[in-house]
Request: fold
Amino acid sequence: MESTIVKAVNYNAYFGDNHVVKNVNIEIPRNNVVAVMGPSGCGKTTFLRGINRMHELIPGATSTGQIFLNNEDVYEMHPIFVRLKIGMVFQRPNPFPNLSIYDNVIAGYKLNGIKLPKAEKDKIVEQSLTRVALWNEVKDSLTKKGSFLSGGQQQRLCIARAVAMEPEVLLFDEPTSALDPISTSTVEELFHELKKNYTLIIVTHNMQQAARVSDKTAFFYMGELVEYDETKQMFTNPSDIRTQNYITGRFS
Amino acid sequence: MNVQVKYRIGKSIGFQALVILLSAACVVPLIFILIYIIQAGITKINWHFLTNLPKPVGETGGGIANALLGSTIIILVASVIAIPFGILCGIYLSENKNSKLAYWSRLCIDILQGIPSIVIGIVAYFWLVKPLGGFSALSGSVALAIMMLPIVVRSTEETLLLLPDSLREAAFALGMPFHRVILKVLIPCGISGILSGVMLSIARITGETAPLLFTAFGNPYLSTNVLKPMQSLPLLIFNYATSPYNEWHDLAWGASCILLIWVLSLNIFTKLITRKWKVQL
Ligand SMILES: Nc1ncnc2c1ncn2[C@@H]1O[C@H](COP(=O)(O)OP(=O)(O)OP(=O)(O)O)[C@@H](O)[C@H]1O
Ligand SMILES: [Mg+2]
Reply:
């Protein structure tokens, strides 16, 4: 049985007067991987950042409409609470350069001033790093700075940092676009694993990636959600001509 | 053709020589000042010199203990005033680049940096010395704090602006409130730049004489009361070097040497801190 975890209702986002996301309605089922695709500049990032209320941090950025998390409007919750429930991983790995690998994983607790017993912290660190398949690589260098890792390892560290907070939803904005093919496939395998516990929304430009990892795909075009369907359906038999053109590479 | 090339090569060598010569010329004054002051001052410095008060006219010996302690106290108080203000202001400027208030504070800070130190001294005189009814170390510290402020503000602002936005976003995405993002992420990551600004601002005011002339005023005795006149190194040098007594000239040379060592060590220390505490982004 599938239940909806995230739902957007008539969601619009603006940068000043620039209407970037136009009247989006979408329902995202729990424990699914949803890929968000579309040409550059069509508002994918902006939509994603609207879900965990990061959009409003940019000066001049506004939004209207509703986004529900478990039937609760995130725009009526405190943004800090929303961001604890909905984690985010960015395009470029951004571990905290002043913290060790260990502290990076528990940064959400440590930097928020949440005190945990040492045993608990150890457990969270090991669990989170294991989940992102990084534990074996770094378990002997947990006190080293996070910025000493390779790009792919850093990105997995950032995923571990988001996972450690036990959110319900994880947002990924082109998480593998700065990574080499091997790191990319490690991260992709990770999505399958993470899906058991979380709901993932992934912005990607890589169609093969979307086809490989996602259950459903949303296609954005010029700020509108043009098509949203099962990934298989979308790639074999798209109903909108714009989706068809995009998938067949007639524009990018 | 050949001649022309030779001419060009010659010109290039000549230009290079000029550049090297002028760069070397910049170093020469510093070396002469260092040699001169160390020659004149180093022989005067010993334990007795550092731990004793100046002797009255006619007696030999004596030291600069009052000025050393006074300078330390005045600078400490100035730092306590200027550093929190400066860092907070720098944070505001870097986080609200385009607000009206940021524009005006930036302008005011630039102007403040250009105000001659003697003018700041006079202002402190009218604001503090007159209302409080007398010269005091505190008024001197306030004058020096005003001089420190622009350096601390600007270095904090510039350091924080250099930090990538992705750092801020990472912190916000973890549900951190604004003040924690600043205190736990941005300041720790920029700490080396902020500290080096602080140290440079201290080095900058250590030798300031003009703002202290009619605020801290000077004091031949040891004093730790910030509400009373207090001696400081630059004041002592100014007073004793302009006196007609040879013994006092010796004190002034010794004190100059100490002041120089103080400022040089601050500069070297700053370089070390910047290197050691730099967070690799
Ligand atoms: N910080 C910003 N300030 C003003 N306008 C912005 C900002 N970020 C994005 N925009 C505008 O919003 C529109 C959508 O941008 P967005 O980043 O959401 O696109 P995207 O679909 O993620 O593109 P890409 O695939 O290139 O990442 C763009 O046309 C851009 O002009
Ligand atoms: Mg984007």
Notes: The pocket of adenosine-5'-triphosphate (ligand 1) is lined by residues A 15, 18, 20, 38, 40-46, 58 (CB under 6 Å). The interface with chain B takes residues 52, 54, 57, 59, 80-84, 87-88, 90, 92, 94-98, 107-108, 111-113, 145, 147, 158, 161-162, 165 of chain A (CB under 8 Å). The CA atoms of residues 63 and 81 of chain A lie 19 Å apart. Chain A is about 35% helix and 25% strand.
